Amino acid sequence: MDMIAVRLNPGEDLKQSLLGYCIDQTIDAAYILSCVGSLHHAAIRFANKSAGTVFDQPLEIISLQGTLSQHGAHLHIAVSDSAGQVIGGHLMDGSTIYTTAEIVLGMVPNTIFKREIDLLTGYRELTIT
């Protein structure tokens, strides 16, 4: 298995930076192996909600999971606040790095991850070729 390590810097958008990296490196299929770091702002969409909730405070990244490629991403995040309370959901644009994000991506060879509208769910779901 091939792996790539990426470090994001303060102020970078977590999701958009990962997508941009995949585009720049022409990555067709990857998944998050590990992520540690912190956010200054977090935009998270909770289950079955149409809009995200924004948290404007320092948060530790507890977990980041998902699939991504140059064609799109589906990422879930769990973060904790200064009291240790944990919240999580769908990572949205606008989640900005506070001090760092150290990420290891696993690469899926000979595979392409795309996101296409699924007629059953109405959402852009993963298609694998």
Could you outline the blueprint of secondary structure elements for this entry?
Elements: E1 3-8, H1 14-24, E2 30-45, E3 53-69, E4 72-80, E5 86-91, E6 96-107, E7 113-117, E8 124-128
Antiparallel strand pairs: 1-6, 2-3, 2-5, 2-6, 3-4, 4-5, 7-8
What is the structure about, briefly put?
By secondary structure, the protein is mainly β. The protein is built from 1 helix and 8 strands.
Considering the chains and any ligands shown, give keywords for the structure.
129 residues; mainly beta; 6-stranded antiparallel β-sheet; two-stranded antiparallel sheet
Tell me the number of strands.
8
Q: Classify the helix fraction into a percent range.
A: under 10%
Mean pLDDT: 97
Q: N- to C-terminal separation?
A: 18 Å
Instruction: Give the SSE string.
Output: EHEEEEEEE
Low-pLDDT residue intervals, each spanning 5 or more residues? none
Shape: globular
What is the percentage of strand-forming residues? Answer: over 45%
Computed structural class: mainly beta
Quickly count the helices: 1
Query: What Rg is obtained from the alpha carbons, in whole angstroms?
Result: 14 Å
What profile does the largest beta sheet have? 6 strands, antiparallel
